[in-house]
Design goal:
- The chain is of the alpha/beta class.
- Helices cover 49% and strands 16% of the residues.
- Strands 3-2-1-4-5 form a 5-stranded mixed beta sheet.
- Helix 3 links the parallel strand 4 and strand 5.
- Helix 2 packs parallel to helix 3 and helix 4 crosses helix 6.
- The relative contact order is 0.20.
């Protein structure tokens, strides 16, 4: 008797383990100063939101700037790992950082990009990147928008318990704008939903 292999599932890097699990998404607005995030389930219910704020303290602590940057990255990593483990996150969405006005800002873009990709690689979670412009275009129909416009649009789509702190609400809204564009455009999320 000839053996036949079962139908194959498309191989998507970082997704082989989570495909059988419930879809729980960590969506991000990455930043070294105010990292916004939300955890959203397959039905687009928000499980939690937050903002990891870090501040440079190298002058106050009289330490090297590089050592202080490592401390800030560690604070972000520890918070995101706690959230990922607590909510059993199975997939990551994130805004792709872009543009920089100086060399220091370019370094920070590299750092936050590395944080997301390292979490994805180390925890074997799939990750998708979306531009800020794509998120705003999908959300509002235009490439640029004020932070207030983004918050107002997100408020019409999701039930968000806003923090009442401007920078926190702005970063959470940006993270949810990434989720919104992914729901509309991600073939990976469509695959997840068909397998649920």
């Amino acid at each position: 008797m000839k053996r036949t292999n079962p139908p194959s599932v498309p191989i998507i890097t970082g997704l082989t383990a989570p495909l059988a699990k419930q879809l729980i998404i960590l969506t991000n607005d990455p930043s070294i100063t105010a990292w916004g995030y939300a955890v959203v389930d397959a039905q687009n219910n928000i499980l939690t939101t937050g903002c990891v704020k870090t501040e440079p303290l190298y002058k106050k602590r009289r330490i090297r700037k590089g050592d202080d940057t490592v401390r800030r990255v560690s604070e972000i990593n520890q918070r995101l790992l706690k959230v990922i483990r607590h909510y059993k996150v199975t997939y990551i969405l994130t805004e792709l950082p872009h543009g920089s006005q100086n060399a220091s800002a370019a370094v920070m873009i590299g750092i936050v990009t590395g944080v997301v990709q390292t979490l994805s690689d180390a925890l074997e979670l799939g990750v998708e990147w979306f531009s800020e412009m794509d998120a705003k275009k999908c959300l509002l129909g235009k490439n640029s928008a004020t932070k207030r416009e983004v918050i107002d649009a997100i408020d019409k789509i999701y039930e968000v318990e806003w923090k009442g702190v401007k920078y926190k609400d702005e970063s959470i809204a940006d993270a949810l704008a990434v989720h919104h564009v992914a729901v509309k455009q991600s073939s990976v999320l469509q695959l997840f939903k068909t397998m649920q």
